Fold this sequence. Notes:
This protein has four helices and five strands. The chain is α/β, with parallel strands linked by helices. It has a single domain, classed as Nucleotidyltransferase, domain 5 (2-Layer Sandwich).
Amino acid sequence: MQDNKTTNPPDSTDNKDAPKRGRILALDLGTKKVGIAVSDELQIAVRPVGTIKRASWKNFLKEVINYLAEYDAKALVLGLPLNSDGTESEMSTEARKIAGYFKLSLDIPVYLQDERVSTYQARGNLWKKGISGKKLEEIVDSEAAAIILEDFISVRNSQK
């Protein structure tokens, strides 16, 4: 029987070799929508930049490539949706598969970042700002992508 614990293979979740300068683009993968966020060139500030609808792989890849080009991103980070106990979920497998596709299709490094509570945190942040209802649903995915990217940069910066 296969162990269901996260193994964190160095090629995707180990971010010690991530570029320390240049913009990084992050995606919060959903089954219908994908939130997008970007860092500044010094990787100090992160901001949500929108969402894209998930359709065919070809269209999805094309849209991501357009965002990467627009921001001249030096790396791509995808949220890795683990279960609360750290085990893999069905969506974790999907995120790893998509990360693999991006690695084959892009000339920049692709990383995975634990995103267990990013959507809940994003909703909380938006509620505190007085945003709710339809407006919240429109921007929560990109806000979650920003949290994923902040976590990625924070983890990378804390590694020796």
